Amino acid sequence: MVPKLHKKAYSFRGVARYVLGERDAPSSERVAWTEAINLSTKSPDMAWRVMAATAMDQARLKREAGIPNTGRKSKLCVQHFTLSWHPEEADGLSQAEMIRAARAMLRVMKAHDHQALIVAHDDQPQPHVHVLLNRVNPDDGRLLSSSFEKLKASRWAQKYEEERGKIYCEERVLNNEARDRGEYTRGDKDDPRHLHEALEAANDNDARQRLLEEHRLKSRQLKEAARRLEAKCDIGLADLEKSYQVRRREVVSHCRQAVARGRKRVRERCRPLWQQLRHEQAAERRAHELREERVSGRVQNALKAIDFGALVGGRVARQGRAKTIGEVFQLLSDAGARAEAMKQEHQLESQALHRRQKRAEQRSASRLRQRRDELLAAAGRAYLAERNDRLLVHGMERAKLRAQWLEKGRKLRGEIERLRRELEPADRRSSPYPTVEKQTKPSDLLPARNAAAVARRIDQWRELRSKSPSRGFGARRGRDDERER
């Protein structure tokens, strides 16, 4: 079993033209049978048109399913892959088994609920089927994810051969075991079709083999150089990021230490003030106690605790001072009230000095933190400048590799063309390069004949999908051809 995932495309018409016809001219001589999946028609010519119409309705399908139409948009809605069996399996291989394998592959790709068309060809010794898959989900319009699809296909193919009792591809088993060990493993890419056909047309096995070996050797060298370049860039950026983070931590740590030193200096400068305040308050307490021994002294202590401005003129009273007649009489008659008033006065003085000290600490810390922010901003600018410089150099090196790839391709095509022209008669020479298929347009969905009937079928399909009760995320999705029957 060899699963081959081809490059994603945007033209259902172009892929359908290839799988349903000859390579160069529309025909169906090599088509053995077809099978439609999740489609309301069995006609292959109608199936790809319905898939194209569904892909064009992606925005409406998302809107009706309640899915936001956000994210990066992609027009590559066409997925084409082939499943090929070994020629030895041709005798015992049935159509049902080939359909079962194709459905299993769709489940591996998580595309079992997508529209697909299976087309079997009988023009090669090895049995094989082509699967034309619509990546747009017909229920909610979401695009099929392609993450690790080739690795999943490789492991499924190995498991499929093990279930059938014989391993035909030993190299795939070795590659998967290497991947399990964490090794990077990737096979050589197939030659493009136009190069392959040009080499086949050259009809010179020795020269063709030399060209292929040179081409593949150069490809491996360029791939290895690209991997080394990417690894070098990643390591360099990681080291740069690490040094930047180290610099940030150093700046923050130095600032924290400087703030602590500044706080210590402010507190040392304030220590004599605290000592002076403590001595003054102790002297006031001793004088207060001495005055309490005489009546005139008690009156004097009481007068110190009265805010006359607030008592007479309505001014806002100072905190801890008596501001009403009742509080004044309380001070005159109660020694404990006078002592408490003095204690509150001392607390207010201590709080004022503490606020003064804190403001000095904050001013010192503010200057240091401002300097820290300036250093961090400078480090960030230097980091971004260095990173951009490295990315620029990396981009130039990648462009150089890209130029080498293009030059290799030009040389290879020139050698192939020269070899082909040397060995091919002049009257049979033609360009080996294929024409580019354009994107499917709405007008391409209607054939030249029976256009009205095809349009009605597409409209019926849309109406069937919009009225189907199985729309939604959790609903059961049945086959559309079963609902039609």
TrEMBL record:
Region (Disordered): 342-369, 423-485
InterPro entries linked: Endonuclease_MobA/VirD2
Pfam families: Relaxase (PF03432)
Start and end residues of each MobA/VirD2-like nuclease domain: 22-165
Domain of life from the UniProt record: Bacteria
Biased composition (Basic and acidic residues): 456-466
Protein name: Relaxase/Mobilization nuclease domain protein
